[in-house]
Amino acid sequence: MRNGTGAAAPVSTQDPVVIIGSGHSGVAVAAGLRTRGWEGGILLIDAEQELPYERPPLSKELLKDGGPDEPAVLRKEKFYADRGIARLAGVPAESIDREGRTVQLSDGTRQAYHRLVIATGSRTRPLTVPGSGLPGVRSLRTRDDALELKRLLVPGARVAIIGAGYIGLEVAAAAAATGCKVTVLEFQDRVMSRVTSAPVSRHFEQLHGRHGVRFVFGAAVTSIDGGERAERVTVADGTNFPADVVLAGIGVLPNQELAADAGLECRDGILVDGDGRTSDPAIYASGDVTRFTSPIDGASQRLECIQNALAQADRVAAHITGQPAAEPEVPWFWTVQHGVRLQTAGVRHPEDDAIVRGEPAAGKFSVVYLRDGRLAAVDTIANLAEFRTAKRLIARGVRIDPVLAADPAIPLAEAIYGTPNPTDADLAAARS
What topology is assigned to 137-248 in CATH? Predict the structure, then answer.
């Protein structure tokens, strides 16, 4: 990948740093610039009208019966005003003129930039089968999506969810708790197959089953049928599933079009280096929209998580201001379904060796993933202490003895290969 290699740019008091996108990463870039002493202008361009808001609760707390009526904002209006961070809401960016260093906006105006940060995030992958445009067929990405879905999730409603990933299962949990009749249609043979192993999938499938959620695996949806609105979902074998509400939770796509149209290098995400720079040294990108080489395991990846969005924002703000960024952190993720929390550290690969620690039936266990003998990732269910320990061990790249790791009575920090009697320093490093 081509990239600028010059020193950090000097502070400009003329044109601002322009940030396209006011999600977690975009707002964190703006805040980070001020924290690091940037005295020039900062402009946040947001396609949505509302104050930037928290997105994880959209599929969790916001959908619950008796939950909040609005998502919590990332920062109050006073935060932006006090720090001189200008906001331009409801006016999407339409194109980037790299030579002229301007952004064309939907209202016809142009905004010059000293440095540009693209933090446009991702969007839901569209459902393209016949009938996908019928009323009652929904996706979930924005505040308005969540509020409309919450309105539809009433007791007795028949809800068909296409896709058993994080979003689909979180919505399934909220819908079941509201009293809906929930069916999840999944093309693969288990839930969350892209992100976790079979033992964790089985645990959450059984958890949902105890709350009345029905799963149909190997289900390829071919159409959504109905008159004035969705009434049923049809799969490839001809089976129909009655539905008043259909949620498509089949993944997301990076909003990379602005970058691609401007000639920046993209490959299922905007390609960035370790400082968040794109193939144009005056343009950075941050958050879900980016693809980068992991500093932990060297893999090319695009991560959809708050931790990565904030970490990349810090690196972008640091580079623009010519300061060092924080050390790379092991990525981590979480989901809560029916009150049960799954926390993941590291990025699992399908070929990793999976070792279960503990008894899933007890409701508290972990699965550690070894890659060439080294701890690469962990899933923990109701086990925060082990999550924290494993996260630190992953960062250290330690080799794990699989026999010791399989015994839940042995602390994970004591399963380091070659150190059956670890020193106090070893244990302190793993647990600190």
Answer: FAD/NAD(P)-binding domain (3.50.50)
Note whether 17-123+253-320 and 339-431 share their fold. Answer: no
Give the Cα separation of 353 and 355 in Å (integer): 7
Residue 380, strand partner residues: 343, 366
Of 279, 254, 286, whose CA–CA distance to 264 is shortest?
Answer: 279
Q: Is the pLDDT of residue 158 over 80?
A: yes
**So what's the architecture of 17-123+253-320 in CATH?**
3-Layer(bba) Sandwich (3.50)
Where exactly are the structural domains of the chain?
17-123+253-320, 137-248, 339-431
The residues, ordered by sequence, that sit 6+ positions from 43 with a Cβ below 8 Å of its Cβ are 16, 17, 18, 19, 85, 86, 87, 88, 111
pLDDT in tens, 314-354: 999 999 999 999 888 999 999 999 999 999 999 999 999 99
Which CA distances in Å does 384 have to 217, 354, 389, 393?
31, 19, 9, 14
Is 265 exposed, middle or buried (CB count within 10 Å of its CB: 0-12, 13-18, 19+)? Answer: middle
Domain 339-431, classified CATH 3.30.390.30, yes or no = yes
- Nearest-5° Cα angle at 396, 392 to 402: 85
Give the other-Cβ count within 10 Å of 106's Cβ.
12
Structural tokens at position 279: 């193939």
pLDDT tens, residue by residue, 5-24: 333 333 345 899 999 999 99
Under DSSP, is residue 89 helix (H, G, I), strand (E, B) or coil?
Answer: strand
Alpha helices in 156-222 (DSSP H): 166-178, 198-210
Give me the half-sphere count of Cα atoms (radius 13 Å) on the Cβ side of residue 265.
15
CA neighbours within 13 Å on the CB side: how many for 47? Answer: 15
